[in-house]
């Protein structure tokens, strides 16, 4: 392929962070937390929902893939689709490959964001943990309408790269240092929470 793995990693180099699980609480400055990145937040759920969840995730994070496989469908059906919770996913790439994935999720507009991130989480092992991840990523996103030319063009877009970088940098300032990290009405929780754990957190907030 025209874009080599070295070229891609050079393009999107510079992201490292530790992965971790567990739960801990902390408060974030509400103004900073509410500030979207240059490309905007992609919200799901009712605008006036009583509870807001902001997730910071990395597309190459195994814990994040576990959350999106095991918990996300139930969380979406029970709380988001019912209008009780408003949710958005923000970019916190732990490595250059995750950065590339997020860039590809953004290049074709925000209406393509969740279909792309859902696919990349669901098929994570097929592209993120292979000998030739860039080739695998290129092949996979062609399922979503990319061509080789548009794949390479997207990954050369400085504006998309800068936007993803800005979201990650602001997340780090808010105390994000592992993925997934959730801010639930401003309170920080980390790790691939189960639906039972979300129930314990959300039900008191919804009842209050």
Shape category: globular
> What's the average pLDDT?
89
CATH architecture: 3-Layer(aba) Sandwich
SSE succession = HHEEHHEHHHHHHEEH
Terminus-to-terminus distance: 56 Å
How much is the radius of gyration in Å? 17 Å
Number of strands: 5
- CATH third-level topology: Glutaredoxin
**Low-confidence runs:** 13-28
Descriptive report:
49% of the residues lie in helices and 12% in strands. It has helices spanning 5-11, 30-34, 62-70, 72-80, 96-107, 113-122, 124-127, 133-141, 148-154, 158-173, 195-207; strands at residues 43-44, 51-57, 85-91, 181-184, 187-190. The longest helix is centred in the last third of the chain and has 16 residues, at 158-173. Helix 5 (96-107) packs antiparallel against helix 6 and helix 5 packs across helix 10 (158-173). The protein is globular and about 50 Å long. It is built from eleven helices and five strands. It has 208 residues and is α+β, with helices and mostly antiparallel strands. It has one domain (5-207): Glutaredoxin (3-Layer(aba) Sandwich), CATH 3.40.30.10. Strand 4 and strand 5 (187-190) form a beta hairpin. Residues 13-28 have low confidence and may be disordered. A five-stranded mixed β-sheet has the order 1-3-2-4-5.
Quick synopsis:
This protein has 208 residues and is α+β, with helices and mostly antiparallel strands. The protein is built from eleven helices and five strands, in the order ααββααβααααααββα.
Tags for this entry?
Glutaredoxin, 208 residues
């Amino acid at each position: 392929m025209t874009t080599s793995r070295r070229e891609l990693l050079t393009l999107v180099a510079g992201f490292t962070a530790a992965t971790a699980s567990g739960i801990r609480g902390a408060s974030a400055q509400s103004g900073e937390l509410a500030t979207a990145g240059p490309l905007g937040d992609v919200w799901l759920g009712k605008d006036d929902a009583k509870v807001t969840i902001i997730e910071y995730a990395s597309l190459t994070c195994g814990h994040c893939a576990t959350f999106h496989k095991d918990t996300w469908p139930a969380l979406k059906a029970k709380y988001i689709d019912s209008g009780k919770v408003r949710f958005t996913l923000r970019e916190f790439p732990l490595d250059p490959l995750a950065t590339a994935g997020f860039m590809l999720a953004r290049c074709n507009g925000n209406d393509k964001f969740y279909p792309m991130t859902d696919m990349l989480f669901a098929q994570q092992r097929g592209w993120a943990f292979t000998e030739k991840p860039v080739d695998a990523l290129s092949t996979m996103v062609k399922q979503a309408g990319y061509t080789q030319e548009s794949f390479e063009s997207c990954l050369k877009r400085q504006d998309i790269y800068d936007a993803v970088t800005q979201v990650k940098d602001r997340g780090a300032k808010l105390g994000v240092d592992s993925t997934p990290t959730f801010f639930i009405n401003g309170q920080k929780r980390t790790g691939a929470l189960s639906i039972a754990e979300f129930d314990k957190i959300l039900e008191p907030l919804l009842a209050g």
